[in-house]
Amino acid sequence: MGKSGVGGWGFGGSAFWLLVSVGWLALAGRGHAASFQVDSTSDAIDQTPGDGVCQTAAGSCTLRAAIIEANAVPSVDTIQVPAGQYVLSIAGRNDDQSLSGDLDVLANLLLTGAGPDQTIIDAAGLDRVFHVASGVNATISAMSIRGGAGVDTGGGIANAGTLAVQGCRIEFNGSDAGPIRLGGGVYNSGALALSVSVIADNRVGASNQVGATGGGIYSLTALSLNGARVENNRAIGIQSLGGGLATSVLLQMSTTDVRGNIATNGAGILQSSGEAFINASSVRDNLASQQGGGIRVLSGNLELVNTSVLGNRANGSGGGLQVQTGDVVLRNVTIHANLADADANASGTAGGAQLNGSSARVLNSILAGNHHGTVADDCSGTLTDSQYNLVQSNSGCVLGTHDFSADPLLAAISDNQGTSAAAPTPTSPAIDAGDPAGCLGTQDTNLVVDQWTTRRPQDGDQDGVERCDLGAIEFVDDALFGNSFEGP
What we know:
Shape: elongated
Low-confidence stretches: 1-30, 480-488
Distance between the termini: 14 Å
Number of strands: 48
Oligomer: single chain
């Protein structure tokens, strides 16, 4: 096995985080910031909002009281929430002042817990958990957000502001009431950046409903995921979309694993429009009852770099990737062990990738070991620019310059430092088979690492010339170094 680690980010995600950071620096100097220490797990309102003191009628500082007090003062306030389970219990969905139902964040706020296993905010089905209002800059960190029940949008969080979620778990939330049903875990209509967080076991929709979208996340605007895990979420019902996440306008995703999600279409990721840039990530073991087990693109532009699409299933077409319209670029991508026509009723093709868009550029990639039913089927559609790829079964695609067909001899799919991949074994024909001029990433600059941060290129075949490998993982013979480079 080769050296491994966590891949880098090069799609403007850093610019997104810089924008958030600059916003906080500007805000930090405004007003007199207060700091509130929550000291009670009960749910009660603040006694005198705006007096600068977090205090309920009982004399304690609850989470709800702290947020009400922070909302009353135009500054960047900090709320520290110690370990404990905080269950929301004041009924009333239609309030937007945090007096009942969910916790409405109406002013700039830093909200910090003791860790996602220690600080648990549970709406217990009363309402969603958090609502971040338009114009607000907020950071929520180190806590679990669960038990939310949104009407229409956002079971766990509904964000209309600029929100950073760091080191959190967003789990066991749902949005299945009302006529819209968007975002079981999170609904985003502002700017949302999630880092080192888990979005798991959320749901949107119900069996008799139509069009539920975004089991884990629904983003109408700008969404950044960095070091996240989106798993076991469900978009339920007729023609449901995006079991893991549904995106339009802009998605920037790095070192993120999207796994085990379920929907009618686009079980892992559903891109309805806009731009999506995915780097050093994995999309694995998702299930669509119709099209696009791993990823489905309805329109827009999708670019994958140093990314693995593995073990996904669709009862229709596009087990790994299905592009209906739009442009797609694959750079050092591995699409492997995906299945179309998973229910074996002869209704689907393209186990690996169905590329029906106006443009498909595939470079230095591996499409292999995919099937529809029992038939080997790695791709279908027109590749407008295809160079230095290994396509094991090319009956549905016309190969381009320096493309070839072979068994890539990949190792079993494995996890490492947050993402999954199938690495080349020592005799793989993918080793040193990339473009000799260099494997190009975004903006046509040479990639310098792979999905797991192994340096690219390497001299994997020991011929004295360094040349990048095909697919998401660069092979390194650990025996040459006398030790193992595998991560924990």
